[in-house]
Structure formats: structure tokens, C-alpha cells
Amino acid sequence: MKNRPVRSAKRKAVKKYTPRKDELKNLADFTSKNPRPSLCIGKGGTLLYANAASLPIISDWGKKIGDMVSREWGELIKEVLVSGIRENVEVECSGRTYSFVMVPVKKASYVNMYGSDVTERKRAMERLTAAYAQLQEAQSQLVRAEKMNVIGTLASGIAHEVKNPLATISQGLEYLSKNINSKDENVNSILNYMEDAVKKADGTIRGLLDFSRATALDIKSENLNSVIEESLSLIKMQSEKSKTTVVQDLDKNIPQIEIDKSRMQQVFVNLFLNSIQAMPDGGELKVKTYLRKLVKRSVIGVASPGVESAIEIEEKSIIAEIVDTGKGIPKGIADKIFEPFFTTRQGKGGTGLGLSIVRNILEMHEAGIEIKNKEGGGVRTTVIFKL
Ligand SMILES: Nc1ncnc2c1ncn2[C@@H]1O[C@H](COP(=O)(O)OP(=O)(O)OP(=O)(O)O)[C@@H](O)[C@H]1O
Ligand SMILES: [Mg+2]
Question: What is the dihedral of CA 326, 340, 369, 263, to 10 degrees?
Fold first, then answer.
């Protein structure tokens, strides 16, 4: 049958093969002429052999046969000899990368190293990894944009439908509170509960409308410090109630910026309220503004990858920094806080729309935001406006 080895009945006596002298020389040349680098390094790290292709590497090391390569190499060779297991190492030389497989020859106490130039493969791999990361980023942006679109449409639809009946209920409750004459004590407290519930629902609806509002911005040249001061006055009641000390460190010399004042107030009010809510037993809310030349592009962090490209290296920017001494952002949720309806304040009036509104408004202004826990507790929020 074909493809089947046929065993001969009797094993023939094999004549021992002795290579000729020229054949021996060819065999010896085999390694030295190999276009791939081959090295042999002895137990203590001494370079015992290097073929022609590895000359650039050893000259880059500044070594010749018989030299000790380095202490690190000595240690690595020892490890490979002791373990008896092949190892792969990468060697950088004059902008190229060589991958070597280290083959221990235990009996002779040296390690043979067979290399190949993997520079192009590595570069291609790096390009591929970068392209993959970009693709993932683009995909998540698309998904986010689509999600926001759907939520926005849905939200504004529902909000409009619910807003008017809520207004009717609210007016009805007001009328009843004033005109009801009942001896039952529970009636008044039930009416109060109902009013609170309606207010809460109304707040949620307002948030939804804000979130889905895609109206054009009313851009004017404004002073950011004034916007911040006005926003602080809007939350004065809450900050006093929660015993929050407000500290202002606003740089008078920052230039005017082009923003929609009322939308920007919304941003700061949301951020201030988040800080106040994170300090239920009081604390310090510090607001600072300053002018800065951005030195790196790490600006947006988790906030809004879409905006990242809007802020270039070395661009001048105005920074508003809000620092609180609250409990900080709980572990593991940092990448979710900007998602619509994400809240850790369920049952405490949190709709989870605050930061998604903040993000939308800042994106419309091509501004960036970064929210991070700071060392020693609390949160630092950085809002960046490019000039
Ligand atoms: N300064 C902060 N300190 C601690 N956690 C914060 C801070 N800012 C935001 N967070 C966290 O991010 C979550 C989302 O914030 P976001 O403003 O979107 O919603 P919310 O404050 O929970 O609800 P809403 O803003 O609708 O009242 C919060 O529930 C909280 O867990
Ligand atoms: Mg909030």
C-alpha cells in the first residue's frame, strides 16, 4: 500500500558514516553563515560565540568574544541553566528588536541563543493594538451617542406627557390643603406627603427635559468667576443646611469666555450639589479658577472621550476646580457616574441625571471634565475650557 512504511525483514548492517573534511567545514559554516543572529553565552555570562549576523548586537554591547556580557545576562544564563527550560528574551539594538530563544546546554554549562529580527512584526503589532484601541473607542462612542439619542427622545416624550398632569395634581393638592376642613389629623399629613411626592416627580421630569434638551446654546462672552459666584448663590440654602463651608479662590485675571451662562450655571449647580450631597455631616467645598497652559492631553479621563480630541497639547485653557471633603466616589463606579440614570442616591432624591446633563452641556461647549477621588479623601472635579 502507498504511504506505508515497509519494514524490511532483516535489518541490514549500516555502514558508519564519517563526514569528509570539506563537509565538516561546511557544517561549521552552517551557523556562522546563518543570516539570523546566534550567540553562545557561558555560565558566568561570558560571550563564547557570536555568528556574523549577531555582530551588530555585540558591537552595540561593546563586547567581543571572551568578554563578560553583563551581570544581568550572567544571572539570566544561570537561571536558564538551573531550570533547564528554554526561555525567550528580547534584545533591543540600534532601533531594532531581536527575539532570542535561549536553549540551555546543561552538560557544557552554556546557553545557545537563536535569534530573529522581529522589529517589523513588533511595529505592526503595536500599530494593530493602537488601531484596535481606536476602534473600540470609536465603537463605544457610537454606542453612547446612540444610547443618548434614544434616551433623549424617550425622555422628552414622557416628560412632556407627564408634566401637565403633574401640574394639575399639584394645583389640586394646593387647593385641597387650603380648603379641606377635616377633623382627621391624618388628612393634612397625607396631603403633605402627596405634595412632596409630586415635587419629587416634577424634579425628575425637569431633569429629563434638561437632559434631552438639544436646543441651541445662547453663547455670549462671560466671566466664569461671575457664573460660579451666581451658581454658588443658587445653592446657598443647601450648603448652609448641610453646614458646608464654601471657600472661593477665583483668579481675577482670567479672560472672558464664550459660554451659555444659564447652561453653565446648571453645570456648576449640579457639581456643587454632588459635593454637598457627598458631605452629609458638613465639610469644605473649595472652588478655584485659574489660567493654565495644558501640558498633556490626559484631560478628560473617564468623562468624555469624544471631547478629548478637542483639547490639544499646549493649548491655553481656563480651569475651574471644585474640591470637596466628602466620602469620595465609591470604588468601581468611576466609569459609570456620567451614565444617565446612574445614581448611588436611590431613595434620597437622586435621579442620576446630574452628571449626564453636565457632560452634555460641556460637550456642547467643547469643554472637558475630569472627576477623580483625591488623596486623603474627597473628590476633585476639574472643568476645562479651552481658549
Ligand atoms: N463629589 C462627589 N462625591 C462622591 N460621589 C460623587 C460625587 N459626584 C458624583 N458622585 C457619584 O456619582 C453619582 C452620579 O452623579 P449624578 O450627579 O449623575 O447623579 P446623582 O447626584 O446621584 O443624582 P441627581 O444629580 O439626579 O440628583 C452619584 O450618585 C455619586 O455616587
Ligand atoms: Mg447629582
Answer: -100
